[in-house]
Fold this sequence. Notes:
The chain is globular and about 50 Å long. Helices cover 22% and strands 41% of the residues. The strands form 2 sheets. A 4-stranded mixed sheet has the order 5-1-7-6, with helices on both faces. Strands 2, 3, 4 and 8 form a 4-stranded antiparallel sheet that branches. The chain is an alpha+beta fold.
Amino acid sequence: xxxxxxxxxxxxxxxxxxxxxxxxxxxxxxxxxxxxxxxxxxxxxxxxxxxxxxxxxxxxxxxxxxxxxxxxxxxxxxxxxxxxxxxxxxxxxxxxxxxxxxxxxxxxxxxxxxxxxxxxxxxxxxxxxxxxxxxxxxxxxxxxxxxxxxxxxxxxx
Length: 157
């Protein structure tokens, strides 16, 4: 059992996440997922697993949540968001990239209800259903042309 002093002095660290910004024919790929706050919309996104690079995590999460292959080609941005409801801060790396094949026989990750394609206007109009304010901010940055080369990121084995 943790003592109050141990809880007071526990080291703080952010939750590192990745997100895919996938646009096709003017629509963005989002997922509808079950959360503790009900059904919410998000980009294909998730946590960085031990031993994987940020790019590998984004490829994996996109496939697991949407059944679409995704190849990151640029970093759109890095976002730090302290979630007000809990003692957690997210550090999100958002990637733009190329869409590959879809595997319609693949089951989606637990908690993912469906993948869907929304216009930017629809993404903006559904902000009350977003899992975080990062969803719309990432789309805005993508639409503004923010792209940084992937070699900005270094992964060491």
